[in-house]
Amino acid sequence: QSDREKRDLIDSLAPSVFKITLEQAIELQLVSDFEVYVMKFDLDDTDPYVVGGTKKKPFFTTELKQYQRLTKGLQRATFTNSPAKFYWIQKRMAFLYSLRQKERLAREIMDQVLTEKGVVKRTLIFCGGIEQANKLCGDWVYHSKVSDHALSLFQAEKIPYLGACSALDEGKNINNLDQILAIQLNSKELSIVQRIGRSIRFRPGHLARIIVLVARKTVDEKWYKSAFENFDKKRIKEHYVKVTKSVAAAT
Fold first, then answer.
1. Cβ-Cβ contacts under 8 Å for 120 (sequence gap 6 or more)
2. Which of 84, 101, 131, 135 has its CA 20 to 30 A from that of 234?
3. 14: helix, coil or strand?
């Protein structure tokens, strides 16, 4: 079922009797306020580390050229109405979910932005996949390949951050969460709403921070715009970040 179908089913079984806006909920202190920082970056076109081609004829290329190659494959399949369209969609999505540029930017944010005055804020880090979560967060992860040991430590406030993929989108109660780092989004509004909802549970004086990473001039931007389409744009601040081996500058 789609999110819309699920929502329609819930509304038919248990219709809402009263609705309020987010602004009203904040004013009534039902939830805390929040701000969204969108960090946009370009695909790398200098380091040919990406393996392209086929198993028999592999070659190395850059992130930008690989994205362009995958997009052309998708366009050809779409134009010819080929079943291979879904292959190219999945392949391009998997590629974007594992970008090294995103990992570099995420690492820089984890090293600097998540710490304020020497104190690491309690942070959920939503990664593009299990491999990325393990690479960035080490043993402090919660996903289908591990136990809930790290989650228990995070809940007990014994570790400052926790990496996850989609396992914490819903179904778990997270205590005293300060902020979210969304390394990867999909296009669904419900997904980002659920994730933001983790961090805005009311606490006096709490202002939640949501950091989102977006690859410019790719379908990643379309996913971001779709997910945040109905959000109050005043809460969203977009920045362009130039990523090298470390983050050099943000504007």
1. 114, 160, 161
2. 101
3. coil
Helix 219-227 with 189-199: angle, nearest 10 deg:
60
- Taking CA atoms, 24 is separated from 16, 27, 28, 76, in Å, by 16, 5, 6, 48
Q: Determine the pLDDT at residue 249.
A: 41
Of 35, 7, 20, the C-alpha closest to 200 is 35
Query: Are the C-beta atoms of 96 and 220 separated by less than 8 Å?
Result: yes
Mean pLDDT, all residues of the chain: 89
18 three-state secondary structure? coil
pTM exceeds 0.85: yes
Element of type H or E holding 51 = strand 50-53
Residue 16: which of 24, 25, 7 has the closest Cα?
7
117 three-class SS: coil
Pairing of strands 58-61, 50-53: antiparallel
Residue with tokens 């289908």: 144
As a whole number, mean pLDDT of residues 226-231 equals 91
Do the strands 141-142 and 115-116 form a parallel or antiparallel pair, or are they unpaired?
A: unpaired
Inter-residue contact 91 to 70 (CB < 8 Å) = yes
* Strands 119-120, 115-116: pairing kind: antiparallel
pLDDT tens for 168-180 read 776 677 889 999 9
CA nearest 102: which of 50, 141, 47, 44? 44
Is the pLDDT assigned to residue 29 strictly greater than 80? yes
